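User
Class, as today's exercise, I want you to study this protein, comparing sequence with structure tokens, and judge whether sequence predicts the tokens.
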Amino acid sequence: MSNTFGNLFTITTFGESHGDSIGGIIDGCPSGKYIDVDLVQLDLNRRKPGQSKIVTQRKENDKLEILSGIFEGKTTGTPIGFIIKNKDQKSKDYNHLKESFRPSHADYVYEKKYGNRDYRGGGRSSARETACRVVAGSIAKQILGNIKINAYVSSVGNISLNKSHTNIDFDNIEKNNVRCPDLKTAKEMEDLILKVRKDGDTIGGVISCVIKNSPVGIGEPVFKKLHSEIGAAMLSINAVKGFEYGSGFSGTKMRGSDHNDIINSDGTTKTNNSGGIQGGISNGMDIFFNVAFKPVATIMKDQDSIDSEGKKTTIKGKGRHDPCVVPRAVPIVEAMAALVMLDYILINNSKK
């Protein structure tokens, strides 16, 4: 099983949704870097369950415990070990799934691949694992310094934010439960999520992300292009179904004469359809991309399925689940982007 992400700056995670704890080992972190653990905890709080009425009501304080690698506020260059205790497991909510498979979950394929599975909340395949990524990504963001990464919800269902990333106020992102930077649109999104929850259903959405102040020259020109690594990072997040950067799919409707980014004398470009990456390498402009999340697979409605013997069965909707995952996934997207950027900067530095 692959549990490690990164090349030089790596995070290896462990733990299950309903185990005693989850945690990770961060390796390859440069020494002598000041880390504010309170800021890491703040990012964890943005991801944790139970924070508003539009997310799962599982109550986890997600208190971070650093075990190694940080001494007197600075990294030592040794592996950073950490754990986050699980406090509010209700494993009995999943007893009815011991011999059955939930539609659109990893249950069936996990058991076929490994021969057994932890059916309590999905076990290892649960999105609870992403809290570990947020820890590593938050540390990476602090080391990145002037490189700023901001993610936000740009759509929920058919409600979209009709503003480009260059024309929004990032300060508004944390001023509402949905984490949409336009407060009017955020209210419409929240109302939709509440309606969907009342119906016992779920809905998807899109998170947009902007990386500012990236240096020129990050990434590789053939394999391991910067955008392919960011895409791989995003597609590793639970419930993600799509990734596009720059002009994305809308660029297919343009002509080259309109799509080309004309280079200014200082190396910047008049437009940024490339999304800050050309030939797999950053060009110093804003890197921006969109990440599509499907509706959460667990719904509060009965669904047809099969059991471990292949017989037809009915899955009952039980437990505490998000009606829409995107509000809590914003810090996860930021974290994965930060992991890629720091990893690639370290790779660049190692080649000089």
The domain at 4-350 is CATH 3.60.150.10 (Chorismate synthase, AroC fold). The chain has a mean pLDDT of 91. Residues 326-350 form the longest helix (25 residues).
